[in-house]
Write a structure and sequence with these properties.
The structure is a homohexamer. Chain A is α/β, with parallel strands linked by helices. Chain A has a single domain (27-328), classed as 3-Layer(aba) Sandwich (Arginase, Chain A), CATH 3.40.800.10. Helices cover 37% and strands 16% of the residues of chain A. The first copy, chain A, has twelve helices and twelve strands. The first copy, chain A, has helices at residues 27-30, 37-42, 68-75, 108-125, 139-151, 171-174, 181-187, 208-217, 224-230, 232-244, 277-288, 311-329, and strands spanning 14-16, 32-33, 48-53, 82-83, 88-89, 95-100, 130-135, 157-162, 196-199, 220-222, 249-255, 293-299. In chain A, helix 8 (208-217) links the parallel strand 9 and strand 10 (220-222). In chain A, helix 5 (139-151) runs parallel beside helix 7 (181-187). The first copy, chain A, starts with 13 loop residues before the first strand and ends with a helix. The interface between B and E is medium-sized, with 24 and 24 residues.
């Protein structure tokens, strides 16, 4: 089947059969797959486009995060479009599913190139839509942001990152792995270190030399300990305000390993002492509500390691819906 | 074997062998099975009667919650009767186990009728005892309350509900499933909507039309977000005070899906962002201590999905003991 | 959405997106969903129709077998249409997916009526197709066969059953549960006991009175021990030959609990000492190759209990493909 | 509560509630608990007595085999008393449950002494009954046999052992652990090496020096490879015939680690290449049918490691019922 | 291989191969095994010595806590030596791994004697080092403290305990099991009850008589409820200050069952309503920073029961590193 | 640390501490790590060298097979060197562990080059040793064989393959993935199709075009069905005899997915209807005993998906030991 944004994105591998009558009530009835160029033309003004980025062979540790886009879509049936907390119905927004970025089995560089192209295509076709990439491992963030940069080269980009790690590893060690996206963006000149804000670092999960590199490049980081003292929401707002004064577009990246491992059995790199569910959701809501946040991703969630009732898959899905709630609160 | 409250309740399937001497120290040594009418006669003044309601074929999703009564009883061995937090020994109360309500395999209506009859029988024989139903899915709540109403028709009943859902689905869709108990009670005239208080709603787990129905019927609901701001305990006390001014008897129903899914792997319908263990226990304690709360249930805990060390089964059991601690604090 | 065989069958909840070019290679690319009456008209001569029957609330023990149709369809991606053992390509047959029979949450009788209607509709529209029902629990077999009987009342029906149990329980005990389908068919006069052949009984999983009933009604049974001595394939052929001399149509029912529990973690009722995988596949192949076998089902597989890599879901799917290989060997 | 065979055995911790009317159909309705000396007096002629031996702190590797007696009793509900393969109803035999041998938490020698005393008491009170010990780890075998010897000192004892290991480790290394029972019995003079027959050894699970010891003491062993060539049943019969010519009483010990690990996830010491379920059951049946086999045990099954649907617990239970079928075939 | 502190401690069963060049970055590159007396001599001034105490056959319930020392060491690879929260690099301290205390399979008293000797040897050779024992079950605490007392008889010892239980059971019941260490120390005169501070008790996990014993002996306890009201950190500091005024040396014992069971699937005795991860880490940090805390242990963590991504093993390891962070903050 | 066969192989990440005295009894005491060039010099005549090849990012499906070398080494403690079936002690052979081939995180081609170099280095230094590669996914086989070819270019190589798949996928689709090794070797001219023998194909796991390619290139394949009819051992001997008449060196590759999925939960690609454990072991033994088999590998075993007691890891380890038994039987 010819790809709709040829050759950068595969259409979804299945399409939900929708009820003929009755209003939209569940997420899978709301988000519309796009599989032809006609679809694309008709939906340029969509509020929101989701795209799967099923790449995790670039992960340092063996990972099945490439399976998350599939699990994510299947989880939609368990969520309504109505957020009771805020009396908001997401289905008032137009939402699209662009399918998955095609991947190569043994050529990771090719995968990364595909992601850049797909991101550029999406940001070009859907100028005003929020684009959300569903990873995949964290290496995809560098590529999604590069694609955004390619599509809108005049916009200065900043990043808000929820993460237990700096992700500032040296690319000369092992290439653009999931430990490197932030450094990749700094070194390629796409994002300045001083326009990166990392919330959630804590404990024994980064080496000292990464901190030194961060300091050298002016990367901003607020440890989880500090953020808790100030309040997660307030911390996020503060970071976004600073960022907004410096950049045109803010990209939110949610590395699910920022969570406490008790909340995220499906994130092998999550750690003791990380964020609680409600803390992450609070932070993501605040981010979603900021007018300059125009793209996001969710990465490093390995559904093959989740427990039986899939708490992590559900949480990852909730993160997206919470972000969108924020968008509607703008 | 002839049933002691013939034909409404099956006797417990086993009776614990008690130590000949020495004081009661564990819960399984304390709660006494009743298996004959003589037992019933002798124990009319029991402080507390537990009854298993092993029905979950009325659940919308496939559920093994019907197995919880068995797991619940086996979990007793892991708990003492002594609550150190309050220096209270539950064994000073008389406690009975009435066994399980008999169920039919393919006739769910018959199951529901049996529950109503069992509830009525228990509330008739044990006029002053607290009756606690161990589900089973949430459809049983409507039946337990109808039985209470049948036994004590002159008493006006109110409900305090811990839940992630309204449980106000339309019965004409799929009959009295686990999504309907509150609507069932409203439509049957047993409880007024305005005498229902739901604590714990949040996120994307209810459709907008259910909220509209709730508003129309005057159902009271405090979202988890709101309750956290005010404090769970204070919220519960406030609801109970309001209820107490309007009704004679308050029925507490604890749908375990009000919990965050990280705390409740054995509740498939639990969700990201739900209550933490200590929040639920705090709420249940407050409810137990209110003099008008005379019956309760615990529902939707599927022990077949719990993880190895059974955190959810233990938590469900702890909920009951915490409720009883509240009773002794009155 | 209006149902294509209104009102008896729901269309599949999603449709696979097919590659535009290139030959069919995987099962999910081969079996075509039908979702409109036009589809039905065009495909009356299909070789094969699969229909999901997601009912397991009629199961004596708590069961998630209702989820198998979904897991079954998702497993298709792991199988090619080409059977190397016999150099046979199944994709030379026309294959349809009729979707799922609609179920009611609390009215099991209604579910059973729906199954009868759906089966009758399928056997009426697809006169020459093999119809395969994907359960669900074993109660569905009685309904599928009744539907077949309704569609083709003049045809005498016989049954070949792979099972660890007689499934001859008394319907007056608990209604038409998964323990009763064979008795249901005998008592309703749809199939004579002497036209039933059960292969696989063994051990301590049937009460004596069921054997007595079987003997009384002339039900034929060959224990697994006996079948192994003679050879599974030869046993099946012998049974089919006997049946063929007495009936017009043979219905094959595969209760997955005939397997040894080591091979079938997703079948809670499977037992130590049951069939090995290759024995069941050998038997099913022999059955598929018999010209009078015109319908089949696979039941009692609970995918929620399967282990991580889903051995049982894969085996259940393999059973169908093996049956179809037999069909092509005719 | 005073123990009925004071002080050697604890009564069962619960007694099943039996149906008032109707014939016995399930195993838990058949095996009667004994909890008083009166019970003992009345049932001296019982065909069969089961006793739990919940000791596994004497296991070299960390083990939860001490929990098997409890899981074993709970598994009874899943088995009828009727063995269809042989048209035999076990409930024609009188069967007793003597409860568990009391154990000490930190004094393993005391545990072993208790087992010896309990075994002696059982063999004294139930002169003609088959006594079956449910372990626990393999160290209990030496103690059960010593108790038998104490009760009937004039009877010469032989042992038939299904095992992947010799269990002939040197007691001076780490005391009477689960690796030593056979050596223990040889060194204590209770059983001669030449009256021991081990079936099932294979692979890389014994050191050379254990084989040397076995040879030196004349222990008979038939590897699984050899047994398979000859046939398991024939091998067992041959061993029993040899034994019967030399001893008065044969004790059967089934170390569940003789199984292939694919069949026995609940036996951590089971191995690739071990017995299949049907091989073990065939061997146990043959053993049960020999008139000189008067006692048996089942050991090293750790139910805490079993998978969800408990294949190993069910298999362990089936081993006992198969043994008893053999007894009725005598 | 001759033991370096013959005969009390086994050397580690493997030694990590270290990178030839480059700075230490991961914990397994930092902590040095000692396997000869020369090693010992050279490292008398080590800041920190870890010793494995793989004993859990003294546990009341079946436990695999004996495996934790191995899992603990393997977990080191997942942690850096750099604590970002405090900008502290642990690798500035000299750290040793003394291997495991040798255990006997069937003689628990011998195991306990070995622990006392090993503890005494460690505290004698490493006069100024912090000694951390990795259990094993809680019975080891009494032995580690006795060994400390033997090495430094003139120092008065106090204990800070994080625990859900008193661990004051009567030793005459079942010997020095994991329910008895505190009573053991009181009765042996090694530590006075009034110099024990227990933080974390709550719920239904202690019998009333244990509380009475605690009161009688002047044991100090702060329930989790009380500690949360005051703040965990403040509570710990308060206890340590009181202790410091009374004793020379403070021993910290962390029973991992103080955690909420949602955070600690690998601690079967953990309970609903226990500590959250961050609460425990906060408490341990405060303890580590107190100058009189000179030894510690971590007990009752059973890695065989942990879930797939090993949240509990990682948390147990984090507890040690957090303690050491406290040490560097002194 | 400088690599001993610089730069092709990393030394083992830990070395076992060996007992000072006493004979070798367990596998981990037998196989010696080599970590310096001196080691290499001294051990040129080793009978056997094992090398880890931790690559699975070249796998089509997400895989953790890269972790198997580590799990494999840790499993050694569970095996003695003595094979009782044949009274053979493997420790009479000299055995080495060369560590792991170094891998790159994001450059799969670099990984493959490293494997070729490592294989060539091993076959050059250890001219007469059996070299066994522990995968990793099946893509490594092409590289190990290419390395062998580079080291010994004059030797004609044949392959005996146990596999459910042809592994003849087109490299132009997705590069040298785990679906391509046999085609890779044919196309690169290293091995002729007619010198490849595949045993174990069955069912629906290969597309028709792969069979066509196999036929075209003269690849020999014996389906599992055919092999079972003839006998696995006889089939293997027959293949080896044919091969021996055509080539100088035979390479054995064991893709663990040839197993039935019931036996191999740790091999996601294993299938219903595959080999049983004893069949594979029988085949491997026969292969090991053939004098021309000089190298082997074990691939596609993902220990992260194995069940609790690690049946698949143990089986994979047993495969190696069984192969070596064959070697000693030559």
């Amino acid at each position: 089947m010819k790809s709709f944004l040829s050759p950068t994105i595969n259409p979804p591998c299945f399409t939900w059969v929708r009820p003929e009558q009755g209003e939209v009530a569940k997420v899978h009835e709301w988000i519309q797959p796009i599989s032809s160029e006609t679809d694309v033309e008709k939906s340029k003004d969509a509020d929101f486009v989701v795209v799967g980025v099923p790449l995790s062979r670039s992960s340092i540790s063996a990972s099945g995060a490439s399976e998350f886009p599939d699990y994510f879509r299947r989880a939609w049936k368990g969520f309504t479009t109505y957020n009771l907390d805020f009396d908001i119905d997401l289905s008032k927004m137009t939402a699209l599913d662009a399918g998955d970025v095609p991947m190569h089995v043994t050529d990771i560089q090719k995968c990364h190139t595909n992601i850049i192209q797909a991101s550029a295509a999406l940001h070009t076709h859907f100028q005003t839509s929020k684009v959300c990439a569903i990873g995949g491992d964290h290496s995809i963030t560098a590529m999604m942001v590069k694609g955004l940069h390619r599509a809108k080269p005049s916009e200065k980009i900043g990043i808000l990152q929820f993460d237990t790690h700096f992700d500032l590893r040296d690319l000369s060690d092992h290439g653009p792995s999931n430990g490197t996206p932030m450094r990749n963006l700094i070194e390629s000149g796409v994002v300045e270190g001083s326009n990166m804000y990392n919330i959630g670092l804590h404990g024994f999960f980064n080496t000292k030399d990464l901190k030194n590199y961060a300091d050298e490049k002016g990367v901003n980081y607020i440890t989880l300990r500090q953020a808790r003292k100030k309040g997660i929401e307030e911390t996020v707002r503060h970071c976004l305000d600073e960022l907004a004064s410096k950049v045109d577009t803010i990209y939110l990246t949610v590395d699910m390993d920022c969570l406490d491992i008790a909340y995220a059995p499906g994130v092998p790199a999550s750690t003791p002492g990380g964020m609680r569910t409600e803390e992450l959701l609070e932070g993501v809501l605040a981010a979603g509500s900021h007018p300059k946040v125009k793209a996001m991703d969710i990465v490093c969630l390995d559904p093959l390691k989740d427990t039986l009732v899939q708490p992590t898959v559900k949480l990852g899905t909730h993160v997206l819906l919470t972000f969108l709630t924020g968008v509607m609160l703008r």
